[in-house]
Specification:
The chain has 101 residues and is α+β, with helices and mostly antiparallel strands. The chain folds into 2 domains: 11-70, no CATH class; 72-101. It contains 2 helices and 5 strands; from the N terminus they run E-E-H-E-E-E-H. It has a 3-stranded antiparallel beta sheet, with helices on one face. A two-stranded antiparallel sheet has the order 1-5. The longest helix is centred in the C-terminal third of the chain and has 29 residues, at 72-100. The chain is elongated and about 70 Å long. The model is unreliable at 1-7 (pLDDT under 50).
């Protein structure tokens, strides 16, 4: 009987190495490797986002893959944090209105 390992963390984003994922074109596992940016557009995307350029060793596919992943637990944590922030802002607003008036 195998147990599934469940990630229980307060993190919203998790870093990952796309080199260990499958190629979107041929489906080969562990065949992706980092590729250099070839032009200005790829340099801008690489420096301003979490997307990096990768190439498949088997089929030659070349494109962007994200180095950050969000899990279902991450989405639930993000929604919870947003709800807490909205409630806190609402309470602070009420307190400030009562102090001013």
């Amino acid at each position: 009987m195998s147990k599934k390992k469940i990630i229980r963390s307060g993190n919203i984003l998790f870093r990952r190495d796309p080199g260990f994922s499958t190629c979107p074109s041929c489906g080969e596992q562990f065949s992706l490797r980092r590729s250099r940016a070839r032009n200005f557009y790829e340099n801008v995307v690489r420096s301003l986002t979490f997307f990096k350029t990768y190439r498949c060793n088997k089929c030659g596919w070349r494109g962007f893959r994200s180095t950050i992943i969000m899990t279902w637990q991450s989405v639930k944590n993000l929604v919870l944090y947003l709800i807490i922030a909205v409630i806190t802002i609402f309470i602070v607003r009420i307190v400030l209105q009562r102090m001013a008036g």
